[in-house]
Every structure is written in C-alpha cells, then in structure tokens.
C-alpha cells in the first residue's frame, strides 16, 4: 500500500509589513521543513496577502501511521521554530 498525506496549514504573521518580508519567511519555512522532514512544501494560497501564509505539505509512505506522525511533527516544528500563529490546519490522507 501507498499512503499520501497532505497538510494544508494556514499561518498568520501579524508583524509582517511587506510581501518581501513574507517571502523571506515562506522561503525559510519551506527550506527548513523540506530539509528536516524530506517532504514537499509549497505556498498555495493568499500569495499577495502579506500577513497570511498558506502552505501545503505532502508526505508519502507505505505506512499510514508514519504519514500521520510526520505531518503532526511538522505542525509542531512550525509552531516551535517560526514566529507565526497556526490559524487552521487540515490533514488528508489517501491510500493507493
């Protein structure tokens, strides 16, 4: 079996005053999460709203529990390592 999980994570960075500043945060977040967890990360919504960040994170494994744990660890990692507030999270896991 193959399990693919996607987490859609909405973040708020109240202190951000420009898109340039937001892009810097998004690039840092993407790079660090990809390196730490070996997953795919993309900014997917609110591209032109400077205090709102929405990213999608995708993980694949042959074990459902591994995908779930990885996505939850990523949420914890973002909360602990970035000056952002998680305002919404949505996790979907599919079996193939």
Automatic annotation (TrEMBL):
<dbReference type="InterPro" id="IPR007546">
    <property type="entry name" value="DUF503"/>
</dbReference>
<protein>
    <submittedName>
        <fullName>DUF503 domain-containing protein</fullName>
    </submittedName>
</protein>
<dbReference type="Pfam" id="PF04456">
    <property type="entry name" value="DUF503"/>
</dbReference>
<dbReference type="InterPro" id="IPR036746">
    <property type="entry name" value="TT1725-like_sf"/>
</dbReference>
């Amino acid at each position: 079996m193959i399990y693919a999980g996607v987490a859609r994570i909405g973040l708020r960075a109240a202190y951000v005053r420009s898109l340039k500043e937001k892009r810097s945060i998004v690039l840092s977040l993407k790079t660090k999460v990809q390196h730490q967890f070996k997953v795919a990360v993309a900014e997917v919504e609110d591209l032109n709203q400077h205090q709102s960040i929405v990213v999608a994170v995708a993980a694949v494994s042959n074990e459902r529990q591994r995908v779930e744990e990885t996505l939850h660890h990523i949420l914890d990692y973002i909360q602990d390592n970035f000056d952002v507030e998680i305002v919404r999270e949505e996790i979907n896991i599919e079996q193939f």
